[in-house]
Amino acid sequence: MTHPGDNGPRYRVVVNSEEQYSLWPVRRELPAGWRAEGTEGSREECLARIGEVWQDLRPLSVRTAGASR
């Protein structure tokens, strides 16, 4: 999402195999083990997206281990 006059840093939402989310500068190569989630924008826009989709902060391995009990 681009806004007129918005020349600030651009970020993308990234996610790892444990379904943990973070934001990463668009101009930098993604770190190993992380993939782009699909959202790019300002820091605030990306943090809002993370707030929408990352409801359970436990890593995937912890969530699935608890479900198998």
Automatic annotation (TrEMBL):
Residues 3-52 form the MbtH-like domain. InterPro entries: MbtH-like_dom, MbtH-like_sf, MLP_fam. PANTHER family: ENTEROBACTIN BIOSYNTHESIS PROTEIN YBDZ. This is MbtH protein. It comes from Amycolatopsis magusensis.
